[in-house]
Design brief:
By secondary structure, this protein is an all-alpha fold. The protein contains 2 helices and no strands. It has a domain of about 25 residues. It starts with a helix and ends in an 8-residue tail after the last helix.
């Protein structure tokens, strides 16, 4: 994750309420979601 990408995601979340941070396999998505949630973020895997 670059600083520019992190800023872009933060801006999108702030202005649109959510952002897609990963697209790929369900297993990888669940692992990433777990890490993000551990950091205090609200996460939804679809």
């Amino acid at each position: 994750m670059t600083s520019a990408k992190a800023f872009e995601l933060a801006w999108t979340i702030d202005h649109q309420g959510s952002a897609r941070v990963y697209q790929g396999s369900r297993k990888s998505a669940d692992e990433i979601a777990h890490k993000l949630a551990a950091g205090g973020l609200r996460v939804e895997v679809r």
